[in-house]
Amino acid sequence: MGIQEFTYLLQGLAWTLFLTAIGFAGGIFFGLVVALMRVSPSAWLRVPAICWIGLFQGTPLLMQLFVAYFGLPLIGFDLPAWGAVSVALTAHASAFLGEIWRGAIQAVPKGQSEAAQALGLHGFSRMFDVVLPQAFKLSLPATVGFLVQLLKGTSLAAIVGFIELARAGTIVSNQIYRPLLVFGVVGAMYFAMCWPLSLWGRTLERRMAAGQAK
Amino acid sequence: MTLDFSVVTDAWQSLLFGTLGTLFLAFSGMLIAMFIGIAGVVILRMQMWLPSLLVTAFVEIVRNTPFLVQIFFVFFALPLAGIRLNPTMTAVIALGVNGGAYAIEIIRGGVESIPKGQTEAGLALGLHKHEVFRLIVLTPALRAIYPSLSSQFILLTLTTAICTSISAYELTSVGQRIEAETFRSFEVYFTLTGIYLVISLVTMWCLAAIGRWAFSYPQR
């Protein structure tokens, strides 16, 4: 594998990071919406959130990518490939992060929001100033874990035909007929991105467990 | 925009067989995964540094790389190792290896959750080391990890869709063939998504029912 092929892989890697960043950023925003709907006392908000989460957790990410890729043009959104993939990844992330944060919100002791209510804080402030900051801390290990999953998930954009790291690997492998070398290098690149994140997530988890044991 | 789902309904037989293919991949992959998981934890518990390091490296590598890259790697590596298998069996092995790494993590967590005193009590009662592991550590640990293993199984079932990339026989590859013949991409994938949803909902329900039945003995 020459320098040219390696640069090609690095270009793919840049796209992988780009897709991950878009999916995660969008996922944070819409995931918060989903989480808040999911813990809402009103069934009109809660039930759609439950269905949304169930839909994305119960189907393969690959199908979600395909449906977005072929479905969005049908309803009039003529997006470039990366746009359709981003929409699918964002929706996917919003469901998973929504579920993670629901768990975190419900894990914050109930006394906290009762105390806030007793102090006369209104609903919005109670959620955003009292419950969510604590829930955020609780959810951090799982959120980082999902970030790793999302980064790995972007590789499925390759099957839709989008050239990111995995697809770049397939193309290079077809050119130089050294599949084991190429996929070894591609795997190592993913590993170099995911492993530090995984280690960080585990450190956070351990620190939190130590805090709770006190 | 006109949608034509007749191409999908006409192909219901292929889709049914594809679904069976998906279930076959998921079940046999999980079987291998459980085997790797238990073997890995047994090796970790021997507490020898080199085997433990190898198992840990295996777990970390598999958990931090995409399944798509893993399946390609297995697909090209097996023939070089002199093992010639059809794509479907290759997919089963890739799924087993992938699920195995997660299974090691889950089972290890479950085994560690069993207090040491329980092992010591078993040994004090004169049980053999293997009996202690099987009866006093593994069985309660299995109950503790059953929920995690169930969701891992669902995840593995959804992962089988990726096996279409090496044209293993399963639902997605059947769908792609229908798509190639009819050019009705959206209808095909929309239907597949629905079928996958039904598969995971039914599986979830069955696993919960099995869990209630198998672990119904009193907690303490």
What can you tell me about this protein's structure?
The complex is a heterodimer of chains A (214) and B (220). Chain A has one domain: MetI-like fold (Orthogonal Bundle). With 214 residues, chain A is mainly alpha-helical. The model of chain A has no long low-confidence stretch (mean pLDDT 92). Chain A is built from nine helices and no strands. In chain A, helix 1 (3-38) packs antiparallel against helix 8, helix 2 (43-57) crosses helix 4 (81-107) and helix 8 packs antiparallel against helix 9 (179-213). The longest helix of chain A is centred in the N-terminal third of the chain and has 36 residues, at 3-38. Chain B has 220 residues and is an all-alpha fold. Chain B has a single domain (12-214), classed as MetI-like (MetI-like fold, Orthogonal Bundle), CATH 1.10.3720. Helix content of chain B is 80%, strand content 0%. Chain B has helices at 6-10, 12-45, 49-63, 67-80, 87-112, 116-124, 129-159, 171-182, 185-214. Chain B is elongated, with a radius of gyration of 21 Å. The termini of chain B are far apart. At the A-B interface, helix 2, helix 3, helix 6, helix 8 and helix 9 of A face helix 3, helix 4, helix 7 and helix 9 of B.
Relevant terms:
heterodimer, A: 214 residues, mainly alpha, MetI-like fold, 9 helices, B: 220 residues, 80% helix, elongated
Q: Find the structural class of chain A using helix and strand composition.
A: mainly alpha
The assigned CATH architecture of chain B is Orthogonal Bundle
Q: Percent helix among the residues of chain B?
A: over 70%
Please identify which CATH superfamily of chain B we are dealing with.
MetI-like
Pattern of helices and strands of chain A: HHHHHHHHH
- Mean pLDDT over all positions of chain B: 91
Report the biggest beta sheet of chain A as strand number plus sense, adding barrel if it closes. Answer: none
Helix content of chain A: over 70%
Name the overall outline of chain A. Answer: globular
Rg of chain A, rounded, reads: 20 Å
- Which geometry of chain B do the CA atoms define? elongated
Number of domains of chain A: 1
* Largest beta-sheet characterization of chain B: none
Q: Give the name of the CATH superfamily of chain A.
A: MetI-like
Q: Any idea of the CATH class of chain A?
A: Mainly Alpha
Strand content of chain B: under 5%
Q: Provide the CATH architecture of chain A.
A: Orthogonal Bundle
Biggest interface pair, residues each? A-B, 38 and 37 residues
Counting H and I runs of at least 4 residues, what is the number of helices of chain B? 9
Distance between the termini of chain A: 53 Å
Average pLDDT, all residues of chain A = 92
